[in-house]
Design goal:
Layout lengths: L1 H21 L6 H21 L5 H22 L7 H20 L1
Length: 104
């Protein structure tokens, strides 16, 4: 159950990062509100997952999901560049997440 909550927390991190981007520095009301709502939900789920998962594992997986997810949203939705170096970096992050899961 903790792993499912952690993955959901990571997904919510991607959502709030996207809304933060489109809030244009918190000048757009709805995206600003959604940023805060998803941020709080993400932190709450992370906190709950940390009751049973080790700190290093939970935090690393949460930030990794957020980083790779935000990277993909940037490419697919915001039209950001997908260079070979950036793709390789994402693969390395995913590899680290897999190793972190296998180690716990």
């Amino acid at each position: 159950m903790a792993w499912m909550l952690l993955v959901l927390a990571g997904f919510f991190e991607v959502v709030w990062a996207y809304f933060m981007k489109v809030s244009e520095g918190f000048t757009q009301l709805l995206p600003s509100i959604l940023t805060i709502v998803f941020m709080l939900a993400s932190f709450a789920l992370l906190s709950y997952a940390m009751k049973t998962l080790p700190l290093g594992t939970a935090y690393t997986v949460w930030t990794g999901i957020g980083a790779v997810g935000s990277f993909l949203v940037g490419i697919m939705i915001l039209g950001e560049p997908a260079s070979v170096m950036r793709m390789l970096a994402a693969v390395l992050i995913i590899s680290g997440l897999i190793l972190m899961k296998l180690s716990s």
